[in-house]
Design goal:
A three-stranded parallel sheet has the order 1-2-3, with helices on both faces. The N and C termini lie far apart (about 45 Å). The chain is globular and about 45 Å long. The longest helix is centred in the C-terminal third of the chain and has 20 residues. It is mainly alpha-helical. Strand 1, helix 1 and strand 2 form a beta-alpha-beta unit.
Length: about 100
């Protein structure tokens, strides 16, 4: 029943919740920390702010809530990121990871 996912984190890797949000066609507002910038691109598939910038976070949430075209673009681009993961067999994904990280 969510309309938006807001993850204003100050630490961590690439949070699984971001993939889950994209797979459910939810726009994302998050922060530019750790591994998040490798997955999320500001104004492409999410709105990405600096940590602890409360005013920017508020503005990003308001933008997603009031700008339908921005919201649609974030959702479409997010689905583009997550679609290959959703369409690939989990066993095949595991085998790819093993092959990529073999000694």
């Amino acid at each position: 029943g969510a309309d938006i996912v807001v993850l204003p984190t100050r630490a961590g890797g690439v949070h699984r919740v971001l993939y889950e949000a994209m797979s459910q066609s939810l726009p994302i507002v998050t922060t530019n920390v750790s591994g998040i910038p490798y997955l999320m691109r500001d104004r492409e598939n999410a709105l990405v702010n600096e940590p602890e910038d409360t005013l920017a976070l508020i503005a990003a949430i308001e933008a997603v809530a009031t700008q339908p075209e921005l919201r649609k673009r974030l959702i479409a681009e997010g689905m583009g990121v997550v679609r290959p993961v959703l369409e690939t067999d989990p066993g095949e994904q595991l085998m790819q990871l093993i092959q990529e990280h073999r000694d």
